[in-house]
Recover the amino acids of this structure.
């Protein structure tokens, strides 16, 4: 890495901060020691202690601040109840629910930032998000996170895209795939030709895991998202209905021929042929991920587990054009959220007991600046990333390597992986929104230079086969296979205790019977279990849950 270039870029990075980082201090270590302390109480962090290394040095030099992180949970135990009583929530707080923020408001220990707006010019430029927070909390007690100034179609591949062993697909002649369920036919043919992976592990048509199941089998439920449906409006989550992003319609997941019931039958058909991983019902995410990295499933319902988990750890295969890529079907229409001007249900707040309120406000406003956005996502300019002569962002040699590598000593040292994003885990501006500085999203994985420079032989073959598209999102956009939708300003609907209990009881039945149906020995048993599941779910109040969600969906339809 060119250290002279790095030093120059770091100075430029300091200039970029401008008014959002007044009081910059980068002349000597003695002056850095005069930085003021700001503590962040984070509901989402697992790190505890001072931010050091290259990130800590940047904060000292550019903002004159030492940041100390206090995680809410220690050893699995939340400290929030105690902290609400004592009022010791640090200077800045990251809340992950409206409920917890309201509790802090009721306790009288967080500031209404209305009177501090003039000190938060970068925050207040996100007018929709600020107005939403003022409505929710009857004052500016929280700043929404993951905000964007425009509702933009992102460049990131959707989670719900299926991926398959692309080299095996080409062996079969790249046949046209009519429906999602036809992936099972191709997967069966792949297993017949390749009963074991390159390393001798069992190769299945499909592998699943159950650890993240909520009130249904999560991976199979999510197939609807590749068919123009969603289970969230960006604020509320729908447990028992799939909501169309194309029109004002929905289907409940237990209705006749629903996509969920079709998905259960699809998985059951693979099981009856001995093609389903028998550990699917019991394995954890970690178990599943290990199998994904070894390529033990012909199809990955969440395609990133192929492209981001198998491909990077098998460079000797991808260099030969072997690995996982998107294989579209003729019914593919992926529901995909745009960035939102309203933000999400995580919030930044400022403690009334902040020991250094002005410095806390300065840091908070910096995080919502264009420069702070890039710092939060990628670290200081010139270490892991820079901007070339054409004005395009790119990863440096250091940024393209291992994240366990050390930052240069003059930049502050420390592992590259110890980013502000990782240590605090409190976002501000959406990483998918286009940065005015870069004219690309802050997310480095979708930069044009990254996609071109990191392309393997597998990627190049896929791009050639798909009209020059550099990634799946580009292909979906160019071929009308993406149903992008705006996040509307709708309220978060809290379920009461009684309805919440009904949800849990109904969900437990659906989840239990769904797995039994997947492993049913024949169609007769499958149908019997399905009928029993529906009857039990309805007796427990399934229809009431569906009606509740339909009401929420109707409000979304009216707002969008």
């Amino acid at each position: 890495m060119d250290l002279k270039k790095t030093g120059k870029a770091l100075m430029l990075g300091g200039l970029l901060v401008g008014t959002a980082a007044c009081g910059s201090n980068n002349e000597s270590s003695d002056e850095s020691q005069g930085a003021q302390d700001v503590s962040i109480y984070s509901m989402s962090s697992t790190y505890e202690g001072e931010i050091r290394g290259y990130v800590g040095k940047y904060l000292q030099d550019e903002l004159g601040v030492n940041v100390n992180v206090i995680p809410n949970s220690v050893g699995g135990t939340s400290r929030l109840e105690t902290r609400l009583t004592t009022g010791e929530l640090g200077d800045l707080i990251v809340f992950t629910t409206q409920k917890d923020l309201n509790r802090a408001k009721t306790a009288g220990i967080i500031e209404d930032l209305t009177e501090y707006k003039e000190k938060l010019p970068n925050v207040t430029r996100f007018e929709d998000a600020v107005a939403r927070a003022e409505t929710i909390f009857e004052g500016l007690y929280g700043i929404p996170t993951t905000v964007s100034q425009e509702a933009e179609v992102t460049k990131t591949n959707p989670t719900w895209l299926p991926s398959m062993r692309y080299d095996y697909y080409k062996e079969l002649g790249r046949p046209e795939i009519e429906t999602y369920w036809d992936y099972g036919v191709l997967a069966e043919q792949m297993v017949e030709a390749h009963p074991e992976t390159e390393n001798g592990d069992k190769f299945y048509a499909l592998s699943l895991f159950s650890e993240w199941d909520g009130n249904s089998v999560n991976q199979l439920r999510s197939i609807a998202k590749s068919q123009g449906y969603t289970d969230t409006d960006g604020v509320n989550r729908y447990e028992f209905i799939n909501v169309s992003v194309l029109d004002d319609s929905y289907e409940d997941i237990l209705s006749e021929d629903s996509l969920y019931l079709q998905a259960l039958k699809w998985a059951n058909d693979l099981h009856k042929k001995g093609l389903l991983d028998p550990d699917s019902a019991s394995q954890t995410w970690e178990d599943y991920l290990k199998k994904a990295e070894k390529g033990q499933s012909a199809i990955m319902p969440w395609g990133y587990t192929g492209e981001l988990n198998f491909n990077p750890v098998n460079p000797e295969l991808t260099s030969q054009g072997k690995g996982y890529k998107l294989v579209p079907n003729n019914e593919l229409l992926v529901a995909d959220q745009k960035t939102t001007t309203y933000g999400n249900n995580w919030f930044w707040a400022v403690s009334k007991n902040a020991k250094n309120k002005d410095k806390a406000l300065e840091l908070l406003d910096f995080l919502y600046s264009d420069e702070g956005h890039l710092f939060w996502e990628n670290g200081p300019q010139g270490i892991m990333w820079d901007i070339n002569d054409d004005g395009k962002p790119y990863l440096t040699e250091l940024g393209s390597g291992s994240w366990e590598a050390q930052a240069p000593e003059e930049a502050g040292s420390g592992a590259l992986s110890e980013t502000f994003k990782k240590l605090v885990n409190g976002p501000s501006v959406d990483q998918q929104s286009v940065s005015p500085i870069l004219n690309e999203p802050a997310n480095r994985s979708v930069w044009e230079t990254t996609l071109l420079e990191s392309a393997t032989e597998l990627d190049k073959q896929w791009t050639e086969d798909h009209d020059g598209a550099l990634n799946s999102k580009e292909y979906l956009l160019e071929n009308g296979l993406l149903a992008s939708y705006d996040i509307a300003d709708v309220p978060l609907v809290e379920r009461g205790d009684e309805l919440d209990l009904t949800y849990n009881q109904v969900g437990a039945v659906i989840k239990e019977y769904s797995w039994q149906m997947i492993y049913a020995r024949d169609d007769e048993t499958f149908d019997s279990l399905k009928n029993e599941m529906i009857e039990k779910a309805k007796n427990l109040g399934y229809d009431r849950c569906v009606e509740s969600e339909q009401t929420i969906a109707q409000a979304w339809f009216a707002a969008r």
